[in-house]
Design brief:
The chain is built from 12 helices and 10 strands. The protein is of the alpha/beta class. It has a single domain, classed as Vaccinia Virus protein VP39 (Rossmann fold, 3-Layer(aba) Sandwich), CATH 3.40.50.150. The chain has an 8-stranded mixed beta sheet with strand order 1-9-10-8-7-4-5-6, with helices on both faces. Strands 2-3 form a two-stranded antiparallel sheet. β4 (83-87), α4 and β5 (111-116) form a beta-alpha-beta unit. α2 (45-62) packs across α10 (229-244). The longest helix has 18 residues, at 45-62.
Length: 304
């Protein structure tokens, strides 16, 4: 794991990265920019909701993000956040089961608020009802790089950070820093053969789980079994997600470009589930705390 500390203890970075090569890698192929269907505004809402419902249900069944619970738990505690604001929530992400595992919720009542650029309100309302209001949601459009002031809290992004270009990704991190909030980015997608192979199985998982995903939608069943658009999009977007995913080294470069004082970044990979999860976690920290954490870290340290 790499720790990047910013603030009064700053010094020159101990490694350099070819920025031009970084910007191209994973973002385009053969001169054509990668894209994912459900990213785009023109993609029909019924299909987008069906895809995000399927992703939410499949990822929850696999428990892919279970290994990062201790990391997230600690980050929220250190940040002293009273609310988690989940960005790019899609169909609700892993929160229907994940919120129960967060120890910080015991006695402190940490609320989870789901948000998205294109809110899947039906799925969000279902999550609110199933958790007796412990999961809430924001109905309006939310730009991950410019959150409304009322959405204060520790920010999380699951399975979505690869959708953003490097400039957009830095802007998202910068906005969290400027607002004095912590942020955690967690990605199961990765540019390696195993992850791509697992992704190829997504259409089959979509076929098998469509009747059980909640909320129940006739449109999702139609676009799965009659005209199998959803399984196709799960395959196409899933493979592209793997190809677009940021590596640990690239995440380090993104964090190093953020202008911040007294802020700590941790970048690494957590194993233990179906596939390893790459993470970037940042939170405010006093200068003394930042310096102490850097000095105590026995793994590679990149100091900005």
């Amino acid at each position: 794991m790499t720790t990047i500390s910013t603030g009064p203890v700053s010094a020159a970075a101990n490694e350099t990265i070819d920025v031009e090569k970084f910007i191209c890698r994973g973002r385009s192929f053969g001169g054509a920019r990668f894209f994912e269907f459900h990213d785009h505004k023109w993609f029909p809402k019924s299909l987008r909701d069906g895809v995000t419902d399927a992703l939410q249900f499949i990822l929850s069944l696999g428990g892919i993000y279970r290994p990062i619970v201790p990391l997230l738990d600690k980050a929220v505690e250190v940040s002293r956040a009273e609310r988690i604001v989940d960005l790019c929530s899609g169909g609700g992400g892993p929160w229907l089961w994940l919120y129960r595992l967060l120890g910080v919720g015991n006695g402190r009542g940490v609320e989870v608020c789901l948000t998205d650029k294109y809110p899947n309100v039906t799925a969000f309302e279902n999550a609110r009802q199933e958790t007796d209001g412990q999961i809430t949601f924001y109905r309006g459009f939310v730009d991950a790089a410019s959150l409304p002031r009322e959405l204060a809290g520790f920010r999380t992004i699951f399975t979505s950070f690869h959708h953003f270009t490097p400039d957009e990704a830095v802007a998202i991190l910068q906005n969290a820093v400027d607002d004095g909030q912590g942020i955690g980015v967690f990605e199961a997608a990765k540019r390696d053969p195993l992850n791509i192979l697992l992704t190829v199985l997504m259409p089959l998982a979509g076929f098998l789980t469509a009747p059980f995903a909640r909320p129940v939608r006739i449109s999702r069943l139609f676009w799965t079994y009659i005209i199998p658009v959803i399984p196709f999009v799960l395959l196409f977007d899933g493979v592209v997600s793997c190809l677009r995913a940021y590596s640990q080294k690239e995440l380090s470069l993104l964090a190093a470009q953020v202008k911040a004082e007294n802020y700590v970044w941790q970048i690494g990979e957590q194993s233990g589930g179906l596939a390893p999860v790459t993470f970037l976690i940042g939170h405010p920290g006093p200068a003394k705390q930042v310096a102490q954490q850097s000095l105590n870290c026995t793994e590679p340290v990149l100091v900005k």
